[in-house]
Write a structure and sequence with these properties.
This protein is an alpha/beta fold and about 280 residues long. It has helices at about 20-35, 55-65, 85-95, 115-145, 175-185, 190-200, 220-225, 255-265, and strands spanning about 5-10, 40-45, 70-75, 100-105, 110, 160, 165-170, 235, 245. The protein has 2 domains: about 5-145, Resolvase, N-terminal catalytic domain (Rossmann fold, 3-Layer(aba) Sandwich), CATH 3.40.50; about 160-265, Putative Large Serine Recombinase, Chain B, Domain 2 (Hect, E3 ligase catalytic domain fold, Alpha-Beta Complex), CATH 3.90.1750.20. About 40% of the residues lie in helices and about 10% in strands. Strand 1 (about 5-10), helix 1 and strand 2 (about 40-45) form a beta-alpha-beta unit. The protein is elongated and about 80 Å long. The N and C termini lie far apart (about 100 Å).
Length: about 280
C-alpha cells in the first residue's frame, strides 16, 4: 500500500491571512482521505512561512520521500507545500522521478502525468510569484516612505516613534543628552571614551527600555555608530548606501557632522595629521 501523509501548514504572516487554520485543514483532509479510501500513515503540521527554504517539517518530509517512506501527500492547496523556488523544484523533481506518486489537494490530484506536473508547476509558480510580488510591494512601500522622509525601523538613540502621527520625534528624555555628547566631542577636549564615561557615570544615561532590551548604559560601539550616522544631521541612509532627506528634526548641522567624521578619521574623511619636521620653527 502506498504510504500517504497529510501535510498542513499556516504561518502568522500576511500571505496566509485568509488560509484555513491548521486544525481546519487537518479535519478537511482527513475527510478527503476517508472519501478517497486512503489510509494515512502520518499527519504533519507546520506553523511556518514557506516563502524561504528551511522549514524543518517539510525538509523531513522530502527526505522521507527520497528514502521511499512516503509516496503520496494530501494537502489543502499546492501553496501549502512550497512558496519558494528551491522547495518548488524539489517537489516537482520528486514527482518527475517517481519518488512521489501523487499530491492530492482539496480540488485536484497531481500525478507523474505530464499535464498534471505542468499544472502543479503552474500552481507552485503562482504561489512563488505571489511572494515575489509581495516582496516587491513591500520594497516599493518602504521606498515611498523613505522618499517622504520617514523610516521603517527603530529610530537612533535620541529619537522615538510617535505612534499617533506615525512620525519620528525627539525622545524627550534623551535628545538633549545625546546632543551634549556631540558637543563634548566637538570641543576637542574629550575623546569618545571620555564622552562615554561622562554620559554613563556622570549623567546616568540609559538607553530606551523596550520589552526585552534597553535600560542599560550606552555601549562604546553604540556611541561610535551614533557619531557616524547621518540621521543626526537629517539624512536617512539605507544599507545600500542610498540617502534621502529626512523629515525629522536634525540634532547637528552638516558642518558639525563633517567635523566629527574628520576628528574620528572616518573613511573618505582623512584625519588631520601633525608632522614634526627637522628645523621646524627655525
Amino acid at each position: 500500500m502506498t504510504p500517504y501523509v497529510i501535510y498542513a501548514r499556516k504561518s502568522t504572516e500576511s500571505e496566509d491571512r485568509q488560509v484555513l487554520s491548521i486544525e481546519s485543514q487537518v479535519r478537511e483532509l482527513r475527510g478527503l482521505a476517508v472519501r478517497r479510501g486512503i489510509a494515512v500513515s502520518d499527519v504533519l503540521t507546520e506553523a511556518k512561512s514557506a516563502k524561504a527554504p528551511g522549514r524543518p517539517i517539510f525538509g523531513s518530509l522530502m527526505r522521507r520521500i527520497r528514502r521511499g517512506e512516503v509516496r503520496g501527500i494530501i494537502c489543502w492547496k499546492m501553496d501549502r507545500l512550497a512558496r519558494n523556488h528551491l522547495d518548488t523544484g524539489a517537489l516537482l523533481h520528486a514527482l518527475a522521478e517517481g519518488k512521489l506518486t501523487e499530491v492530492i489537494t482539496s480540488d485536484r490530484t497531481y500525478t507523474q502525468d505530464g499535464n498534471d506536473r505542468f499544472m502543479g508547476s503552474f500552481e507552485l509558480g503562482m504561489a512563488t510569484k505571489y511572494i515575489d510580488d509581495l516582496r516587491a510591494n513591500v520594497k516599493r512601500g518602504n521606498r515611498a516612505r523613505f522618499l517622504r522622509g520617514w523610516i521603517n525601523y527603530i529610530p537612533p538613540i535620541g529619537y522615538q516613534n510617535d505612534l499617533a502621527t506615525k512620525t519620528i520625534v525627539p525622545d524627550p528624555e534623551r535628545f538633549d543628552l545625546v546632543r551634549r555628547m556631540w558637543e563634548l566631542l566637538l570641543t576637542g577636549a574629550y575623546r569618545p571614551e571620555q564622552v562615554l564615561r561622562t554620559a554613563n557615570e556622570t549623567w546616568g544615561f540609559r538607553t530606551k527600555k523596550g520589552k526585552r532590551t534597553g535600560g542599560k548604559p550606552l555601549h562604546r560601539s553604540m556611541l561610535y555608530r551614533m557619531y557616524g550616522d547621518p540621521f543626526y544631521m537629517g539624512i536617512i541612509r539605507l544599507r545600500s548606501g542610498e540617502t534621502f532627506p529626512g523629515a525629522h528634526r536634525p540634532m547637528v548641522t552638516k558642518e558639525e557632522f563633517d567635523r566629527v567624521q574628520e576628528m574620528l578619521g572616518r573613511p573618505g574623511r582623512p584625519r588631520p595629521q601633525k608632522h614634526e619636521f627637522p628645523f621646524t620653527g627655525l
